[in-house]
Amino acid sequence: MSDFYKTGNRDLQDQFNSRKLADRLEEMIVHEEITEQDRGFIESRDMMFISTVDEFGSPTVSYKGGDTGFIRVVDSKTLAFPGYDGNGMFLTAGNIAANSRVGILLIDLENPMRLRLHGNATATPDDPLLNDYSDALYVIRVNIDNLFINCPRYIHRYQKLATSEYIPTAGCPTPVPEWKTIEPLREVLPENL
What we know:
Order of helices and strands: HHHEEEEHEEEH
Strand order of the largest sheet: 2-1-5-6-7-4-3
Helix content: 10-25%
CATH superfamily of the largest domain: Electron Transport, Fmn-binding Protein, Chain A
Distance between the termini: 47 Å
Largest sheet: 7 strands, antiparallel
Strand content: 25-35%
CATH class of the largest domain: Mainly Beta
Structural class: alpha+beta
Number of helices: 5
């Protein structure tokens, strides 16, 4: 068996008598390379959640959104997506600089399905894909350790009403978010954010 499960996972699997089930699931669904089915799902997403950990082990989770296809499968072990103008806190990219380990959750809320992905990431301001993303500050690349489709039974069904007007689009000025007009923030807002 691989090192997919850690001590805490194993302790609970033993407590609830699910170790054999967990091992079978790992054997059946966990894989180390992006399949064509995975690629289709990943590249059809317009949002995701990414978890990162800082140098002290403190976690955070961020929502990332863009146009459909903003997450690109570069090859069978790598995906990439843009780092857009945010709030200047750089929680995701800063954590990646300190600890490259990431977890990503991709969900289809209209046709319940989800994919989990684990790997190591970099956030690079001079990545060759940077010019492919309008207004991106950097590109995050994730080298995949493993990924798997996860049971969708608890996914609530939602319907998409609209795409955010703030998603950068080539040739169109991106609207200024309201929070950037708050006086105490406006006076310290860098020109490039």
